[in-house]
Design goal:
By secondary structure, the chain is α+β, with helices and mostly antiparallel strands. Mean pLDDT is about 85; it is low at about 530-535.
Length: about 800
């Protein structure tokens, strides 16, 4: 049954759904096969193949004269590629650009654009011819090495693929977007690729790891440096991977004792002019501070961008920010997608080499067979000429006594057994060739032909000889066109397991209200008696103070939750170590925080455990439980941990099993305790459920798990505090009004925080003046719920803004 029916009036009834599907599939395959993807054998898309073949047909040899680009474009469009002149010219321009092609295939004369993004001049102004490399792509094409097919109007024929005497797909790479798929293959160094192919020819069981010892990685025409091998290894093994490319820079001191950054190489396909403008824009917006001047001193000989810095600027810090904020560092996503027998496939390194070698086996076999046929035909004719020369008088008599050529051929066949081809050669032979000298020349030619025939047959009959020939010809190309690597492969910090070289020890992490963080040895703070004055925690920055302090291990995985409900990750050893009096480093240099975003909660997570949950509490009393599985892979830009309503913010996070109880404390001295299993798990983007009924002026100030101690420690902003036994707080239903936990007065001020503790723990109190005091919790008296406690810290004109505990033995 067909999808189309024809009625008597000539109208067709068509199923539109099936028709659209089949039509779109036809279109997709046309784009994939005939336009967007390269062939694995020659590494060319149809337009590039037609351009090179068109140049060959126009006689644009590398040692010849140039011809107008418009001439080439018109010829290619009229004969082979009826898709518009701009697509042909744009492709031609790219083949001529030495900053796009590792080994250009078009030799252009005139303006062919530049790395600043300026386009090429119109095709009527520029001229082209082939490079020597392009001639290697076409070498032996007239020896029946590849198949030819009719062009679009059956007026001409064009090659299905070029002989490609070097691995162009690997050497020059390719990029293209088809329907539902794309290819993005980086260029490589000619020497390395040919050595890799030779290694495969010698041993087709060679591993990808062994090939990587020869083929180090991509080699871009603009140089630059690849950071790390992980992406390269993955791409070579699977056909897909991501590599990080970074500009090559130097930090040098100018005559005025000021540092300056010199950029000498840029990542592949980065627009130099746009990069300079971006740096200037970031400097103007003060996103990057410390730059005084940017000068582009680049010439045809190379790139040189000079970034002058202020006298007190840290050049390395600014350089790191430039890598982060600009295209001085980019990611190149490798997709080794190519057509194999007309079918798109993602290929690993060994497969790419194998398909190229298979193509060369076919090319050399067909070329050798062509040469063999030609040599045997010529030898056959010379054998006939020898017979004619040995019997010249009879031959002349036959020719004189015959009416026409056909009678001559018939008599020569009957008299000497000569074939039609031999007889025709005798008829075409001139009298001057009857001399003895000419016979010597024919004999010499014949002897050489016999040797060639023997050699050709040896190649065709012995695979090892054939492979050696491919190897020899590839090594000749390497000697002619090979060069040194331009791109350096540098070690990346991500390739090194820093945890293995960092000593594991307890450290104190402090975080200030204005987002400065630092790491210090755990012994920095010694316990003091209750009511002491404390010690300075940092070199006080105006209007800044420490609002979070906790003890962790250098190897711990730290999750940073922000007021906006996002989560970021750092290892403790990644936080810079600093002295007790220094302010530390701004978190924005370590985490990719947005404007108005700041960290409100930090938790330790040494190992990832998918059986656990993250419990999140907001200032307005919402709570949410989310599986730890959803936080396994935290990106550089962070993840959404909880969705928040207007003006609400995330204040605390806990790692829980789900069978614990949570205790929440409010600013006005209320507390509520309820089981966590009363909360159903929800996804990262959920908002959470109600914990407690808050009065209009009340908010949640802290939360803790009840299994972390036997007492609730409550501290007020004016330095008062107390311990209350947890037994005094009965478990309630979530969403209730809670119980009174602290008597708030003008003397005590509002509650700053409440923590679940044991008497063996230590307490650290942080004031907004930057003063910290460490107390023994066993020195704090135990009181009932509706009391104000005792003086813990003499705050004078400041207020307690945060507390933290240090778990004792």
């Amino acid at each position: 049954m067909t999808d189309t029916k024809k009625f008597e009036n000539g109208i067709f009834d068509v199923d539109i759904n099936k028709k659209m599907r089949s039509s779109y599939l036809d279109y997709s395959m046309s784009v994939i096969v005939a336009r967007a993807l390269p062939d694995v054998r020659d590494g060319l898309k149809p337009v590039h193949r037609r351009i090179l073949y068109g140049m060959s047909e126009l006689g644009l040899a590398s040692n010849g004269s140039y011809k107008k680009s418009a001439r080439l474009v018109g010829d290619v469009m009229g004969k082979y590629h009826p898709h518009g002149d701009s697509s042909i010219y744009d492709a031609t321009v790219r083949l001529a650009q030495n900053f796009n092609m590792r080994y250009p295939l078009v030799d252009g004369q005139g303006n062919f654009g530049n790395i600043d993004g300026d386009g090429a001049a119109a095709m009527r102004y520029t001229e082209v011819k082939m490079t020597k490399m392009a001639e290697e792509m076409l070498r032996d094409i007239n020896k029946d090495t590849v198949d030819f097919v009719p062009n679009f109007d059956n007026d001409q024929t064009e090659p299905v693929v070029l002989p490609a005497r070097f691995p162009n797909l690997l050497v020059n790479g390719s990029s293209g977007i088809a329907v539902g798929m794309a290819t993005n293959m980086p260029p490589h160094n000619m020497n390395e690729i040919i050595d890799g192919v030779v290694k495969y020819i010698d041993n087709d069981e060679v591993t990808i790891k062994e090939l990587e010892e020869i083929i180090k990685g991509p080699d871009f025409p603009t140089g630059a440096q690849i950071m790390g091998r992980e992406g390269i290894d993955k791409a070579y093994r699977t056909g897909r991977g991501k590599i990080k490319i970074r500009a090559v820079c130097e930090i040098e001191e100018s005559k005025k004792n000021r540092d300056r950054i010199i950029i000498t190489e840029l990542p592949y396909q980065v627009n130099k002019s746009a990069l300079v403008m971006k740096i200037a824009e970031l400097t103007k917006e003060k996103t990057i501070e410390g730059i005084t001047k940017i000068t582009d001193s680049s010439t045809k000989r190379g790139i040189r961008i000079i970034i002058d810095l202020k006298r007190d600027a840290n050049a390395q810090v600014i350089l790191n920010k430039l890598y982060k904020e600009t295209q001085m560092e980019v990611t190149f996503g490798i997709i080794n997608l190519a057509l194999v027998n007309g079918e798109p496939k993602v290929l690993n390194l060994k497969q790419l080499i194998r398909y190229y070698v298979d193509h060369q086996v076919e090319v050399i076999t067909r070329r050798t067979q062509y040469d063999l046929n030609k040599a045997e035909k010529r030898a056959h004719i010379i054998e006939g000429l020898f017979i004619a020369l040995d019997n010249i008088d009879k031959v002349i008599k036959i020719i004189r006594g015959s009416k026409d050529d056909s009678e001559v051929k018939e008599k020569l066949l009957k008299e000497f057994g000569l074939t039609d081809e031999q007889s025709q050669a005798i008829l075409d032979m001139r009298l001057r060739r009857l001399t003895g000298l000419e016979r010597e020349k024919l004999q010499s030619e014949y002897d050489k032909l016999i040797e060639d025939i023997k050699r050709y047959k040896n190649i065709l009959e012995n695979n090892s000889v054939l492979m050696d020939l491919i190897k020899t010809e590839l090594l000749e190309i390497k000697d002619k066109y090979g060069d040194l690597r331009k791109t350096v492969i540098s070690a990346d910090a991500s390739d090194i397991e820093l945890e293995d070289v960092i000593k594991e020890e307890d450290v104190v992490i402090t975080l200030t209200n204005m987002g400065y963080i630092k790491r210090m040895p755990e012994g920095t703070y010694k316990p003091q008696k209750r009511g002491g004055k404390g010690i300075t925690a940092l070199s006080q920055k105006e209007d800044d103070f420490v609002n979070d302090l906790f003890v962790t291990s250098t190897h711990d995985r730290l999750l940073f939750f922000t007021n906006l409900g996002k989560v970021y990750i750092l290892r403790a050893f990644e936080i810079p170590e600093a002295s007790r009096s220094s302010k530390g480093m701004a978190l924005v240099n370590l985490l990719n925080l947005s404007k108005g975003e700041f960290v409100t909660s930090v938790i330790n997570s040494r190992e990832y455990d998918p059986e656990l949950y993250l419990l999140m509490i907001t200032e307005k009393g919402l709570i949410k439980k989310t599986s730890n599985k959803e936080f396994k892979n935290i990106r550089k830009n962070g993840l959404i941990g909880i969705s928040l309503r207007d003006k609400d913010q995330l204040i605390s996070v806990h790692i829980v099993k789900g069978d614990e109880e949570i205790m929440l404390v409010t600013k006005n001295g209320k507390a509520i305790r309820f089981p966590i299993d009363s909360i159903r798990p929800s996804g990262r983007n959920a908002m959470g459920v109600k914990t407690i009924s808050l009065s209009k002026d009340d908010i949640i100030v802290s939360s803790d798990l009840t299994n972390e101690g036997k007492y609730l420690l409550t501290v007020s902003e004016n330095g008062y505090g107390k311990l209350t036994e947890l037994e005094e707080y009965r478990s309630q239903s979530r969403g209730g009004k809670g119980l009174i936990t602290y008597k708030v007065t003008n003397k005590t001020g509002f509650v700053t925080a409440g923590r679940i503790v044991n008497k063996s723990d230590d307490l650290m109190l942080i004031a907004d003046s930057g003063i910290i005091i460490r107390l023994l919790i066993e020195d704090i008296s135990v009181n009932g719920r509706n009391t104000q406690g005792v003086k813990l810290m003499n705050v004078k004109d400041s207020k307690i803004v945060a507390i933290t505990k240090y778990i004792g033995d």
